Every structure is written in C-alpha cells, then in structure tokens.
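Continuing from the previous page of notes. For each protein in this section, the sequence appears first, followed by its structure tokens. Read the first protein now.
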Amino acid sequence: MALAIKPALQRSFGNDGWGFAVAVANIQVPKLTELDALTNFNLSCSLFGEQGDPTANQEKVTLPRILCETQQYEVNGTVTFAMPDLIVSFSPQAAAASDGKKAWETMVDQLNGFLWRRQNVAARDELDVGQFVDIIPVQLGVKVPGKTSTGADGVYSFTQGASITGAPAWNVEIVAGP
C-alpha cells in the first residue's frame, strides 16, 4: 500500500488576494499583462476579511429503474456556481480617483469581466508569473453604498453582487504575456 499523502497546512489569514480584470483571453492560461492591466482593479486591500468564497453545488440525479433491476444509481447533474456579494470598503467623500473611491469608480454596475483570486501568497504582494490563481467569469451587479455596522466598529462600504457567468478555471498558473 502506498504511503498516505500529508500536505503541510498553509495558513490563509492575510494570504488571499482578489482582483477584477476586464478581459482575459483564455482563463485556462491567464497572462500577467491581462490581470495587471491599468483598467483592472486589485481588491486585496478593499474587500473585508469576511469575504466569502465561490461555491459549487453539484446536483445528483437518480436514474430511473427499469423493471428487471433491483437497484438504482445516481449520476452527476447540473453544477450551479455562486459567488457571495462583494463587500468593499470606500470613502463616500473621497476625491475622484483617490484610493477611497477607486473601487467605486472602477466596478461599474453590470460590468462583465473576471474576478481573480490568488491564495497562499500575502494579499499585499503583487501578482507574478508562476503564481496560481482562480479565474471566475462574472457580471457585476448594482453597487449599494452602506456601512458594515451601525455600531462604533462600523465603517463605510458598498455591496455589489457578482454573478458567475461561466465555468471558473481553478488554480491555473499565471504566464507572461505581451
């Protein structure tokens, strides 16, 4: 018998980076130039720590039994992908193009594009060739300004839905590109 595989545990605290790219030609082979373009936005220091992860729900279907069979079997059916709403920090009174307004201005309502998520690298670090990311095709929803709470710990934020519009590419390597 083969020895059990035991990967080292990797801490996720502070090591998730998120961003939005307007265009990615091939989500299986994302280029650094596509993810790092000036029209894109790195959300790593704008999303709150409670940001949820995308999910997939795999439907299981029971096949019909024919008369001579005494057992029924399942097969995989539809997969439904979902993305929790993005909760993004921003400053309602900040000047245009400032750090406090960049996310608000860049994440245009109903914009189609790609969320990228990089795991196991410090969130503040820049993207680099050879790192692995998830590329998630999305359509952004309508932004709604608000705050994280009404208590003393509340800060201003906006919430924006993100609908997954195609099959994501999980853990794909960033390559160099023109």
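Done with the first. The second protein uses the same format. Note its length before scrolling.
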Amino acid sequence: MLALPGSLLAALKSTTINHAWLVEIPGGLYFTDFETDITLGGKTYLAGGGLLKLPTIRREMDMKRHDITLAFANEDMALFQALTASNLTGQICSVSLVLLDSVGAVISGAAIGMYQGTLHATDYKENTENVVTIKVAGTFSKPNQTAGRFTSANSQLDRHAGDNFFEFAHERRDHLGWGAEE
C-alpha cells in the first residue's frame, strides 16, 4: 500500500491539482514532463519537451520483472553523449510522481516513488525527432550479465590471463559423441 502524507491527502480532495513525472537517470540527469522546470530536493528536473514517452507503470505486489522504456528528444546529441560517456549500466534510475497545486508548486514537498530499476541499455534513432531510448530493467533482472552469466570472455581473461574458456562457451559445432566427433 502507498502511504501518503496528510497534506497530500488533503490536496487530493481539492478541485485544482496537476501532476508531473520526474525521471532521474545516472550521471546527474533529471527530466520532467511538466511545462516548466521543477526543483525538488536540491535537484532541478528539466522541462522543455525532452521527456517524450513514459510507459504505463503498474505497482503490483507480485515478484515480476517489470522493464520500462523511456524516450527522450535528443536534438543536439547531448543526452546520448552524456549517457555513453561512461558505463552507466546497472546504476539506479527512478521515476517519481509529484502533485502540483494551481500555481505549479509541489504539494507536500515530496515525490511519490513509482518505479526504480537499473539502466540496462541506451539507443539512438536518428529520424525526424532524433529520439534516445533508455531501457530500465526491473529489480529482479541482472543487466550486467553476458549470455546469462556475470563472467564474459574478456572479464575471464582479465582475471586469468590465457584462459579462453568463455570464448567457446556458446559455439555450436556438429554433434560430438562421447570422446570423439561422430
């Protein structure tokens, strides 16, 4: 169940209330879908149309893997460059909801956490909109696995020089019988 402060519950009963989504991405990147920037908790969430698409977020008690994809406008490649400047895979991303009064001030000074996951992948599609998509993996996924493993050929070689076992882990060959090729 979602616990809400008393001031927020009182505001929900009013006739003039707005909402805004806040998205926090590793690397100090903060976005909102509201018409103006929102400052909350010392962070400024940027408006201006950068946040194009949020999926439907379901809050359930089941242990499911909920992945979401976020879409952002990327007119000057700045967002994609910021996302690819360092390895952000596996770092925490969050989506929160804030309720705003009639003048755009955040009610109760707190955001309602709606989704938290880890950055899994980024992609850039150059078309008329120049869209950057970010896949955020749910709590129960392991975004830093390679072919279902935490160890890859490169990470194995980093630890054990000359050990190339994982290089052949997914190689397919003709059927091998016991001790010899058939």
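What the second structure shows: The first strand starts at residue 18 and ends at 25. Residues 145-182 form one domain. We return to this in next week's lecture.
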